[in-house]
Amino acid sequence: AQSVAQPEDQVNVAEGNPLTVKCTYSVSGNPYLFWYVQYPNRGLQFLLKYITGDNLVKGSYGFEAEFNKSQTSFHLKKPSALVSDSALYFCAVRERNSGNTPLVFGKGTRLSVIA
Amino acid sequence: DADVTQTPRNRITKTGKRIMLECSQTKGHDRMYWYRQDPGLGLRLIYYSFDVKDINKGEISDGYSVSRQAQAKFSLSLESAIPNQTALYFCATSDPRGGVTDTQYFGPGTRLTVL
């Protein structure tokens, strides 16, 4: 079975500081991993995904994520946080050989960037 | 994403009423999904459809039904609404040409309250 965990319900960071939103996953084989962001009163928007190759993935709005197979993690990072980054962030996973099974989403982490 | 629209955006109804939530997309995607979002529970899959003739149950399909009227339309029905179906509902689409790495595109959501 596929699953994903976001261990922090809330992350607070000061504007200009680096931010990290954590995600760990569990699959039987190799994963495809995704990050989505939800701004207030909006649907989810795709940020980035890991398919294969380079463990560091760059996405929209200056975000990046690092795939770590040994730690089964895919943490989202940004070098310098903006107030406008405040939102709800979701990690999602699909096992590579799972056919057409849909994505499994984490419970979300609320990021608050304080000016 | 304006390419995926949901109607209504907000709905208040009473216990026992039949409710239909509608989703339309202009992205030309074959795959469509219905999720519900609850605080602390993240995004949970209700139903998904990979083409007009394909309907699949998700994690929490009890109490819900769907209809895929056309490639562009996927509606979700609550046959007899109950208060614990109060939630934010999202429709999403994806393109099968992306294979198992397909990115999902979300509508703006429907906030449903069952009294």
Structural description of this entry:
The complex is a heterodimer of chains A (115) and B (115). In chain A, 0% of the residues lie in helices and 52% in strands. Chain A has 115 residues and is mainly beta. In chain A, the strands form three sheets. In chain A, strands 2, 5, 6, 10, 11 and 12 form a six-stranded mixed beta sheet that branches. In chain A, strands 3-9-8-7 form a four-stranded antiparallel beta sheet, with no helix packed on it. The mean pLDDT of chain A is 93. By secondary structure, chain B is mainly beta. In chain B, 0% of the residues lie in helices and 56% in strands. Chain B has strands at residues 4-7, 10-13, 19-25, 31-38, 42-51, 54-57, 65-70, 73-78, 87-94, 105-106, 110-114. In chain B, strand 7 (65-70) and strand 8 form a beta hairpin. In chain B, 35% of the residues are buried. Classes of the chains: A mainly beta (115), B mainly beta (115). The interface between A and B is medium-sized, with 25 and 24 residues.
Helix content of chain B: under 10%
Q: How many β-strand runs of chain B?
A: 11
Distance between the termini of chain B: 30 Å
Arithmetic mean of pLDDT of chain B: 92
Question: Ranges of chain B with pLDDT <50 over ≥5 residues?
Answer: none
Strand content of chain B: over 45%
Please state the CA-atom Rg of chain A, rounded to the nearest Å.
Answer: 14 Å
The largest sheet of chain B is: 7 strands, mixed
Helix and strand content put the structural class of chain B at mainly beta
What layout of secondary structure does this protein have?
The complex is a heterodimer of chains A (115) and B (115).
Chain A: E1 3-5, E2 10-14, E3 19-21, E4 24-26, E5 31-38, E6 44-50, E7 56-58, E8 64-68, E9 73-78, E10 87-95, E11 104-105, E12 109-114
Parallel strand pairs in A: 2-12
Antiparallel strand pairs in A: 1-4, 3-9, 5-6, 5-10, 7-8, 8-9, 10-11, 10-12
Chain B: E1 4-7, E2 10-13, E3 19-25, E4 31-38, E5 42-51, E6 54-57, E7 65-70, E8 73-78, E9 87-94, E10 105-106, E11 110-114
Parallel strand pairs in B: 2-11
Antiparallel strand pairs in B: 1-3, 3-8, 4-5, 4-9, 5-6, 7-8, 9-10, 9-11
